[in-house]
Design brief:
Elements lengths: L1 H26 L18 H8 L5 E5 L8 H20 L4 E5 L8 H14 L4 E7 L2 E7 L2 E6 L2 E6 L8 H25 L5 E6 L10 H9 L3 E6 L12 E5 L7 H12 L3 E5 L3 E2 L10 E6 L5 H7 L1 E3 L2 E5 L2 E10 L2 E15 L14 E2 L6 E3 L5 E8 L4 E5 L2 E4 L18 E11 L8 H10 L6 E10 L20 E2 L4 E2 L2 H13 L19 H6 L1 H31 L2
Parallel strand pairs: 1-2, 7-8, 7-9, 9-10, 10-23
Antiparallel strand pairs: 1-5, 3-4, 5-6, 11-12, 12-21, 13-18, 14-20, 15-16, 16-17, 19-22, 22-23, 24-25
Length: about 575
C-alpha cells in the first residue's frame, strides 16, 4: 500500500512538472499579461493598437537604456521599456522588434566615444548617473534613449525625462507615462512614405536660420521636411504644406498675403503664430540706459480676431521671471550681476492638455497677452499662462534697465493666469467672407480655385512671443540649445513645448492621447516601514512554517484515519 501511495505521488509530481514546463515553453511564443492596475498602465491606447496593426514595414528598436550597476529608478524604467516593447511586438504581429544594446560593452574606448558622439549628433542626450559600487560612488555616462529604425531611416527617442521642476521621482513617473506615446509617435513618423512638410514664412523680417537653429535641428531629427515660403499675390500657398509657421515677423503683412494665409487655413492648412506685438529688445540697452516699448502693427489683428483670439499690444510683467545681467561695481571693478527681469515671464502649465502635460516652465521675452473671444464654432484652450503675481503694461512705455535693481511693488502685480499661448480648434470662418473683392476673385480665377468661406475641422496655435523659438548665441557666436538661458544657465522647456505643438497639429490619428496616460508610482511609506518592520518580518518568516505545520498535521491525521481501518 505504501509503495502504491509513493508511486501515485511520483506520478502527480511528474505531471505537475510537465505542466509547468509546457506552460513555460508556450509562454516563450505567446506573450500576454493581464492589466490589473487602476490606471490601466499596461494597456495600449486604441490609436497605438491601430497603428501597430497597420504597419507595412518591420520596425527595429535599439534601446541603450541598459548596462551594469544602474540605479534602481533606471532599472524600473528599463523594465517598463522592455515590457512596453513586448506589447508593441505582440500587437504588431512581430513587425516591431527590439534589442537592448550596452554602449559601455564596447571595449575599445575610441570606438565607444565615436558611437556616443554619433548618438548625440542624431539627437539623443546622455545623462550622468551616480552609481554605487564596492569602492564607493562614481559617475557613469548613459544614454537613456532608443533609436527607431526602418527603411534606412532613424528617429531618436529620449526615454528619460529630465525635468528640474518635478525632481527625480517625478521625472521617472513622467518618463513611464510618456513612453508609449514617444515610441508610437516615432514609429508613425518613420512609417510615413512622405514626411510632413513644415514651412516657415519669409519676407517680413521673420527669424532666420541662426536664431531658429535649435528648433530646426529638433524638427529635422524627427523626420519633418523643412522649407521656407514667401507669399506671392499671384500664387496660392502650396497645399502640400502641412504646417505654416509665422515666426516673429517684424513688418506688416499686406491684404493679399493675409488672404493667401486665410484660404490656406480654410483649405485645412495648420498654422503656428509666434508674434511680437511690441517693438522691444534687450539689445536696445547697449546704446542707452532706457528704451521705449512701442506697439508693432503686423496687420493681423482682424484676421486672428476672426478666428477667435485677440492679440494685445501690451507687455506682460511677472514676478515669476527670468534674470538678466547688469554691471555692478565690486571693489572698483565692474562685474555682471543677475537681477530678476519682470519683462521675461516664465510661463507655467496649468492644464492637463497633451501639449503641456507635465511640461517644465517655458521662458518668454517681452511677451504680450492674449484674449479669447466667444465663438461657438471654435474651442479655445489656454496652453501657457503667467503666474498668480503678474500684470500687463500698456504701450508706448519707457523701460529703464536700472529698474531691475529695484524691488517691484507686489501689490501692483495683482493679475493672474494671463494667457500667453492659446490652441484654437474648430471650424474657422474666413475674414473675407463678406469682403470678397473683384481683385481677390481674379486671384482665385487664375488658380482655378473656388473661394472657401469656412474650413472643416482645423487647428492653430497662437503664441504671444516670437522669441520663444529663438536660441541664445554664446560669446563665440555658436547657437546654444533652444530653451537654454546663457545667463541663468537654466534649461527651459521651449523646445519640448514647440515640438509638442507641431506634433499635436500634425497628429490626425490621435496618438498624442497617449500623453494623457497617468502613471502612479505607489511607493512605500518609509515611516510605516520602519514602524512595522519587525511585525512583517515575523509574519513573512513564520507564515510558511505555520502552513507547513498545518499541512503536516492534516496529512498525518488523514493517514492515521485511512490506515487505522
Amino acid at each position: 500500500m505504501k509503495n502504491h501511495y509513493f508511486i501515485q505521488s511520483i506520478k502527480v509530481l511528474a505531471i505537475s512538472l510537465l505542466a509547468v514546463l509546457a506552460i513555460n515553453f508556450a509562454s516563450s511564443f505567446i506573450y500576454h499579461r493581464f492589466d490589473l492596475t487602476e490606471e490601466k498602465r499596461y494597456t495600449l491606447t486604441a490609436s497605438t493598437k491601430k497603428l501597430l496593426n497597420g504597419l507595412d514595414n518591420t520596425i527595429d528598436v535599439e534601446v541603450y537604456l541598459t548596462g551594469k550597476d544602474l540605479p534602481a529608478g533606471i532599472k524600473i524604467l528599463q523594465n517598463e521599456t522592455r515590457e512596453l516593447l513586448q506589447e508593441f511586438r505582440t500587437n504588431s504581429k512581430g513587425k516591431v522588434t527590439f534589442h537592448f544594446f550596452d554602449i559601455n560593452a564596447i571595449k575599445n574606448q575610441q570606438q565607444r566615444e565615436e558611437f556616443q558622439t554619433n548618438l548625440v549628433k542624431k539627437g539623443l542626450k546622455p545623462t550622468n548617473l551616480e552609481v554605487k559600487s564596492s569602492s564607493g560612488y562614481s559617475e557613469k555616462l548613459v544614454f537613456p534613449g532608443a533609436m527607431i529604425k526602418a527603411n534606412g531611416k532613424e528617429i531618436p527617442v529620449q526615454i528619460l525625462e529630465n525635468q528640474f521642476s518635478v525632481g527625480a521621482q517625478g521625472s521617472l513617473n513622467n518618463s513611464i507615462s510618456f513612453l508609449e506615446y514617444k515610441v508610437a509617435n516615432a514609429i508613425q513618423k518613420i512609417e510615413r512614405s512622405h514626411p510632413p512638410k513644415i514651412a516657415f514664412l519669409q519676407g517680413h523680417g521673420e527669424l532666420g536660420i541662426e536664431p531658429l537653429q535649435g528648433f530646426l535641428e529638433t524638427l529635422a531629427s524627427q523626420s519633418f521636411q523643412l522649407d521656407k515660403v514667401e507669399l506671392d499675390k499671384d500664387k496660392l500657398l502650396n497645399n502640400n504644406i502641412d504646417i505654416l509657421i509665422i515666426a516673429k515677423p517684424q513688418n506688416a503683412l499686406n491684404d493679399y498675403e493675409k488672404f493667401l494665409i486665410d484660404q490656406y487655413i480654410m483649405a485645412g492648412g495648420k498654422t503656428m503664430w509666434l508674434l511680437d506685438n511690441v517693438i522691444c529688445d534687450l539689445e536696445g540697452f547697449k546704446l542707452s540706459p532706457s528704451m521705449v516699448a512701442i506697439p508693432r502693427d503686423l496687420n493681423l489683428d482682424d484676421l486672428l480676431f476672426r478666428y477667435g483670439v485677440r492679440t494685445e499690444h501690451n507687455l506682460v510683467l511677472d514676478l515669476y521671471c527670468n534674470q538678466i545681467p547688469i554691471m555692478e561695481s565690486v571693489g572698483g571693478n565692474a562685474q555682471p550681476k543677475l537681477f530678476p527681469w519682470v519683462f521675461y515671464p516664465i510661463a507655467i502649465n496649468k492644464k492637463n492638455h497633451p501639449i503641456v502635460k507635465n511640461l517644465d516652465p517655458v521662458a518668454f521675452k517681452f511677451a504680450s497677452s492674449l484674449d479669447t473671444l466667444n465663438n461657438p464654432d471654435v474651442q479655445k484652450t489656454i496652453l501657457l499662462s503667467t503666474s498668480t503675481y503678474s500684470r500687463t503694461q500698456v504701450t508706448p512705455f519707457q523701460i529703464y534697465l536700472e529698474g531691475a535693481k529695484q524691488k517691484p511693488n507686489p501689490y501692483l502685480f495683482n493679475q493672474k493666469d494671463i494667457p500667453l499661448a492659446v490652441l484654437l480648434e474648430g471650424k474657422f470662418s474666413s475674414l473675407y467672407k463678406n469682403q470678397f473683392t473683384a481683385d481677390l476673385q481674379k486671384l482665385l480665377s487664375i488658380q482655378k480655385i473656388q473661394f472657401q468661406p469656412k474650413s472643416n475641422f482645423n487647428k492653430m496655435i497662437v503664441i504671444a512671443d516670437g522669441d520663444i523659438a529663438s536660441n541664445d548665441i554664446d560669446t563665440k557666436g555658436v547657437p546654444l540649445a533652444l530653451g537654454y538661458d546663457k545667463y541663468s544657465r537654466q534649461l527651459f522647456a521651449n523646445k519640448d513645448f514647440l515640438l509638442n505643438c507641431v506634433e499635436y497639429l500634425i497628429d490626425d490619428n490621435n496618438l498624442i492621447d497617449a500623453r494623457n496616460r497617468e502613471v502612479k508610482m505607489r511607493l512605500l511609506d518609509k515611516a510605516k516601514v520602519l514602524e512595522q518592520k519587525t511585525r512583517w518580518q515575523l509574519i513573512t518568516f513564520a507564515s510558511p512554517l505555520i502552513l507547513i505545520l498545518i499541512f503536516g498535521l492534516i496529512y498525518n491525521y488523514r493517514r492515521k484515519v485511512k490506515y487505522a481501518r
